[in-house]
Amino acid sequence: MTLSVEALAVVVVIATGVATVAPIVLLTLFIRDWKRGRLW
Amino acid sequence: MTLAEDAAILPAGIAWGLLLGFGVLWVLLGWYLGRNNRTAVDHMLAGRNVGLALATATAMATWVTANTTMTAPQLALQLGVWGMFGYSLGALGLILFAPMARRIRELMPNGFTSGDFIRLRFGTFTWRVFLVVSLIYAFGWLVSLAMAGGVLINALAGIDYRVGMTVILTVCVLYTLLGGLRAVIGTDFVQTIIIILGVSFIAWLTIDRVGFEAIHFNLLEERPELLNLLFPAAIMFLFNNLLFGVGEIFHSNVWWSRAFAFGRQVGFRAYLLAGLLWLPIPIVAGFVALATPALGINVPVADMVGPLVAAEILGLTGAIVVFIVVFAALASSLDSLLAATSDLVTRDLYRGHFRPQASQQQLYRATKIIVVLLGLLTWLAASYRGELPIIGSLAAVLYFTGAFVASAIWPVVAGLYWRRTNPAGAAWSMILGSGLGLFSYFAIGFYVAALVGAAVSLAVLLLFTWAAPRDFDWGRLAEVDPDGDDGNARGRDPMDTAPVYPTAASRTPDPHNPGCGPLPNGGAR
């Protein structure tokens, strides 16, 4: 049972997309915590 | 094992510049973040109110080790798509720990270490067994990370193994010493951003420059087994990795100390979000290895496939990106482990066994001395890589700890959720699980150690608890004083009516801290 090129592309693009968004999520949370004085 | 400088993908001069530049940055950041630390609580738990952003990033960064960035591509090259999918299941450990982190914070609002929990929940004997298990694992992981630092710097830049290992270890010891957990968490945030941006950048460029069609076509021609969804060895690896990852997170003080340090409503969300954001990283990092047939790259050493692909696609820039990512990944795990292990040694060994009356200032000093001693011990063990029987390779060190790690899963889970768990059963499940797991490691192979350890541990725990169920009052777990002066650091059996090793404080209840003395009914409130 071989993984198709389409399936490989979908999995990798989704994974890379989520990973690319992750720093934005973290920075957004950081700014939100900082504004509320809740970093520490 | 030292590679010739001309075989490296990065000139040594640039590597030294990056090492010194980032090393100085981490140390300065650590000093800045920890400049207001005054007590052991500040140093060990960063004030117990870490927010969601820093909490999520530190959980992610600690779980992204050099293994994730270097071994995920190696596994993709050796085990195919299941290699990278299997590695990404390590995220389940973080996700499953999310509800546990919330429960830990609720049950032990003033806890310090995983040792505190085992001591209060199961008593002295189980606590000591747990400390042996936990410290063997922690030291094994520390040594393997230090070794990984030396090996990777040597492989990437041709810098001598011991020199590279010494530099990375020194930088991590310095900023952990200066800033404690606050420094660790603060640097982890920056390191997480660097790691994720680096691996994503290389993955997008691989997709753009090589393309899925070419990757898939060349894999089918040259390595069709890597696309096989029924690759038996890979499926075995998937379960083994899952169990090992869950065991590591459930018992280790690295994760418990964070559960105590995160704000009250933060632990669950932070671990859940960290797990979800960590899940794709091994796929992103591992995928690039599948491009080797399409790129026509000859891979002499499997664990160098990631850097080789990056260097092929991006040239010198790719090598620099990989070097920075690997340095950040190594530092983010080494610092966490140094901090959490020094906490465990300070709190559970030094104070728990030798200086029960140690003051806050003495504990603060002890924590710092212990960080340095741990660094020195790690350096010594990593320096003799290949010359001691166990310390042969990274994998050997890690898998050796597998039996210990897996045998601690069930005592921790049952201790948190199952009121009737038998304390002696918890101890013997770790002893027999570790023992038989180690036996299987030598008698059968590394790949069964964790599995046997976990299975034996579960069977023993169930048997003891079925034969002699014991009741427990969850309120006992809240007995730790917020300043760490619970007056009963040596603990007592939760079923006994008197402390096992009565200290002055436990013999005479403190009028200022009535919760510290022995309870007339043996602990049940």
Give the termini distance of chain B in whole angstroms. 60 Å
> What is the oligomeric state here?
heterodimer
Give the helix/strand class of chain B. mainly alpha
User: If interface size is counted as residues with C-beta under 8 Å from the partner's C-beta, which chains form the largest one?
Assistant: A-B, 28 and 45 residues
Total E-strand runs of chain A: 0
Give the distance, in angstroms, between the N- and C-terminal Cα atoms of chain A.
Answer: 50 Å
Describe the structure.
The complex is a heterodimer of chains A (40) and B (525). Chain A has one helix at residues 5-35. With 40 residues, chain A is mostly helical. The longest helix of chain A has 31 residues, at 5-35. The termini of chain A are far apart. With 525 residues, chain B is mainly α. Chain B has helices at residues 12-33, 40-45, 52-63, 66-79, 81-88, 91-107, 114-122, 124-157, 161-209, 212-222, 232-251, 253-261, 267-278, 281-287, 292-295, 305-314, 316-354, 360-383, 394-400, 402-407, 409-417, 423-443, 449-467, 504-507. Chain B is globular and about 65 Å long. The interface between A and B is large, with 28 and 45 residues.
Which keywords apply here?
heterodimer; A: 40 residues; mainly alpha; 1 helix; B: 525 residues; 0% strand
Blueprint of the fold:
The complex is a heterodimer of chains A (40) and B (525).
Chain A: H1 5-35
Chain B: H1 12-33, H2 40-45, H3 52-63, H4 66-79, H5 81-88, H6 91-107, H7 114-122, H8 124-157, H9 161-209, H10 212-222, H11 232-251, H12 253-261, H13 267-278, H14 281-287, H15 292-295, H16 305-314, H17 316-354, H18 360-383, H19 394-400, H20 402-407, H21 409-417, H22 423-443, H23 449-467, H24 504-507
Helix pairs in contact in B: 1-9, 1-17, 3-9, 3-13, 3-17, 4-5, 4-14, 4-17, 5-11, 5-14, 6-11, 6-12, 6-13, 7-8, 8-9, 8-17, 8-18, 8-19, 8-22, 9-14, 9-16, 9-17, 9-18, 12-17, 16-17, 17-18, 21-22, 22-23
